[in-house]
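Batch manifest, entry 17 of 40.
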Amino acid sequence: MAAKIRKGDKVMVLTGRDKGRTGEVFEVRPDENKALVRGINMVKRHQKQTQTQEGGIISKEMPIDLSNIAYVGKDGKPTRIGFKIQADGKKVRVAKSSGAEIDG
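Output type: structure tokens
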């Protein structure tokens, strides 16, 4: 199945404490149905010192469910995503609100 949200997409959070904020997806976990969005769903974690990393309290992003984020189009508004088959047989993502092709 083709992914509606992909790495590099700009998304808006629909629910939760970060509702209304936007960020860029930097990792998608399709098996868990979750994504990591830069600067969204931040938590503090205690980290032990290793040879490569410093110890202390660090802030990191936690996964957010794909149902709680929406793709943000060129107009800056969140939209749902559908799929369309082009004449040459290529499958592209389409913004439901405007009908514009996202990657094509």
